[in-house]
């Protein structure tokens, strides 16, 4: 596959990178941040972001078993903690927005596991990775591309 365009304004790139870094810092859990970003990237079919965040997930200690079962996290039993499951459910709700909003039950479950500042950072992180996914997929940036 050839990229449609690799042009991305440096100020846009920098703003998104800064927003993502701030959200990760505020969440304070690098492994969970990568799980969330991988899951959103799976849902959005973003090979570029999957390639990047799978490597970062491994670097931050996410197990191969979790990565192997991430696409079926709801059926994976105790492979994921209740906290991780709440974050993944929120990731799917924000990414897909099936009914145009995040269901109250999904938000309430996440709120049981994350205090308000961390929940805000988690939602911000999910929003930023979705923006990156859309930028990469719409421009057809291939996995591992040096130009993006």
From TrEMBL:
Pfam families: CMD
SUPFAM superfamilies linked to this entry: AhpD-like
Domain of life (superkingdom): Bacteria
Family matches, as InterPro entries: AhpD-like (IPR029032), AhpD_core (IPR004675), CMD-like (IPR003779)
Domain Carboxymuconolactone decarboxylase-like: 20-92
Gene3D superfamilies assigned: AhpD-like
Signal peptide: none
Molecular function as annotated in GO: peroxiredoxin activity
Protein name per its UniProtKB record: Alkyl hydroperoxide reductase AhpD
Annotated organism of origin: Streptomyces spiralis
């Amino acid at each position: 596959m050839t990229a449609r365009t690799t042009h991305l304004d440096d100020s846009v790139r920098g703003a998104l990178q800064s927003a993502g870094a701030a959200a990760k810092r505020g969440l304070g859990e690098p492994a969970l941040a990568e799980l969330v970003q991988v899951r959103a990237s799976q849902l959005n079919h973003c090979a570029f972001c999957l390639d990047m965040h799978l490597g970062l997930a491994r670097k931050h200690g996410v197990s191969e078993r979790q990565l192997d079962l991430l696409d079926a996290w709801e059926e994976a039993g105790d492979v994921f903690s209740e906290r991780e499951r709440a974050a993944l459910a929120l990731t799917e709700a924000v990414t897909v927005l099936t009914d145009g909003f995040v269901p109250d039950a999904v938000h309430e479950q996440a709120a049981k596991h994350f205090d308000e500042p961390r929940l805000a950072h988690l939602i911000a992180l999910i929003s930023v990775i979705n923006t990156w996914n859309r930028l990469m997929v719409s421009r057809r940036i291939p996995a591992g591309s040096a130009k993006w």
